[in-house]
Amino acid sequence: NKVVTTPAYMLAENIAQAATGIEKLVARVLALSA
Question: Is residue 25 within 8 Å of residue 6, measured between CB atoms?
Answer without folding.
Answer: yes
